[in-house]
What does this fold into?
Amino acid sequence: MTPPVPDPRTPAPHTAGADRRRDTIDVAGARTDNLREVSPSIPKGRLVAFTGASSSGSGSGKTSLAVDTLHSEARLRYLEGLSPFVRQYTTQRNRLRG
It folds into this structure.
């Protein structure tokens, strides 16, 4: 007899009862480049793909959301989490480079 396959929508036992906001990355009103007030909720600990139609010329916003919004914010939060001692060795160029 094989064990039952867990439902992917059910939180893992270690997160059961935890604050649901910690299970997702919530973007509120992203307006980078061609994004117009986009507010997705992206699950943590899962493989996520940004897919959809690609319109010629202006683009559909997938790269803007992934790189310009999520990656930039993650990099900023990472640098803010470093101690001042370590941060002094991070040049301005390294802080801005993606």
In short: The longest strand covers residues 24-26. Residues 22 and 44 are 8 Å apart (CA to CA). The radius of gyration is 18 Å. The first helix runs from residue 62 to 81.
